[in-house]
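Loading example: each entry is read as two labelled lines plus one structure line.
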Amino acid sequence: MKYKILKKEHLNNFINLLSQRQKVFAPVKKGEKHFVFEEVTSAAPISIKYIPTILPPKKFFMPQNETLLEYNTHEGQNMEAVVEIQDIVLFGVHTCDIAGIQYLNLVFTDRPKDLNYLLRKNSITIIGLECNDYCDEYASCNLMENALPNGGYDLFFTDLGDYFIVHVNTLAGDNIIEITRLFEEASHAQLDELDKLRANKRKIFKNEIDADITDIPALFEKGQQSKVWEDNGNRCLACGNCTNTCPTCYCFDVIDELNLDLKSGKRYRAWDSCQSEPFAKVAGGESFRKSRTQRQKHRFNRKFKFSVDKYSRYSCTGCGRCSRACMAKINLKETLTALVKEHK
Amino acid sequence: MTRDKKKLTITESEYHIKKGKIVKVKQMTEAEMFFEIALADNENLNHDPGQFVEVSIFGVGEAPISISSSPTKRGSFDLCVRKVGKVTEALHKMHVGDEVGIRGPFGKGFPVRNLEGNDLLIVAAGLGIVPLRSLINYVLDNRREFGKVTILCGCKTPQNMLFGDEIDLWQKRLDINFSCTVDKADPEWQGNVGLITSLIPGVDVYPQHTYGIVVGPPVMYKFVIKELLAKKIPESHIIVSLERHMKCGLGKCGHCQINNLYCCQDGPVFSYDKIMPLEEAI
């Protein structure tokens, strides 16, 4: 295990050096409680303490609109499958969002593999950043076992006052250490500080709902007919904010766009939402998930049941974005708590 | 390392498309058109009966279409397309010699290995005959491997009947039992009138050795399955193919999800015991 130290006075230099080599994106404050991953060239705009960004890092791995094919029908049906990639560094990714990327990796590596995703993923360097405390009341990262780092990054920064202690997890991460030449060896005392912080975190981060994570799939099993879904369905506006902001939602639509020459164009995929009514419509017009109640239940099942059945992994990361972004104030923690009360 | 975006061509992408040339077109009914398509160099599609392809018309889009021919037919494959959306509408305007894009075959087809050595009771309602024709022709081309084969075919009116010429031939064959019904007859109709469920009670079945294979509109499944269960055919021997909008065909886009299953990868063919607990299935 390799740990390094970056003194905070060197952070600006670090970001600047990185940005000369490739684009660097980091959390930047946009308003009261609103942060976005935005390109930076210095440390000044970066918010080291931030609550989850409006959109998760998913937007870099699976862009909202992504070209899959380009075609030209001037002479026959000619086309090329394409992927657009760019070497970038994501700085300051929280553990919940790293868990989101890990889940997407699982989905897109599952056969048939998605080369667009996998090629792009390999061009993105991830520098994690520890949350020393809860970001806000919507988070349930401890329940989802994402309050502490579980890999999935190249470098991982923990703020220890005057300096960051940095876990070097990959050769790509080590390469950054070598190139920037701003890091020092971590001392035993500094490693002890990290241990102390993590011990303290274990006291601060408590189970956010009255249930053990391992009980949740069974809870969903029992709760398929729960009135919780109806309550959520009655309130849901089907706006899709929850799925757009979710770090693990990856459903998409496939759309053809013709250029003005009416001969050439592209086929792209765009984020779609299982909360919209036409999502599960078939050719004859029948919809297999007509009601908002059914669609809300489907969304929760995908986070806490289907993903566990298929990948032995929850696809909720506990980031709290769906609750924060919900116009109808449907709250994930309240939904789970209501399920617990009904079925425990 | 570069700060610029790079665009790579990836021929091994699952979104890469093969060119298919239309070699035969035939108007079947007012809404349905038959297409025979050959891939470049007459490359075989190598599908299983019951699988589907994604058909592309650039500038319009892509749509999942059931393959209607048996894999025993070599060099080209058949599609029967109902005009229901913009891709199918554009397809209906195409002619022999035109090119379309083909991805696939996708999904799990009918479990032909399991069906071998058993009696088959094939129930086709409406457009259900389209994917079932791939199985029926496979079975007829390998007739010795199967026991008693019964085909029940139903549609709304005689004008809606698809593959009428072939149905006439099936009716004459001695090695299959074939019955046909329409919901509403016209004066020329000589056959049975009534829902397809009305044909099932009259079929003689050895339940443990029979597979009931059912494809039709969503509304039909519950009623037909009820009749098959009444014949004591085990739930695991009832095979259905379900319709969903499979946009990517790769188990990713989410549109065809049935509870925890992706219709495009786990289906579209399922045995009833697998989907029975799923409230979104039928």
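Residues 195 and 201 of chain A are 10 Å apart (CA to CA).
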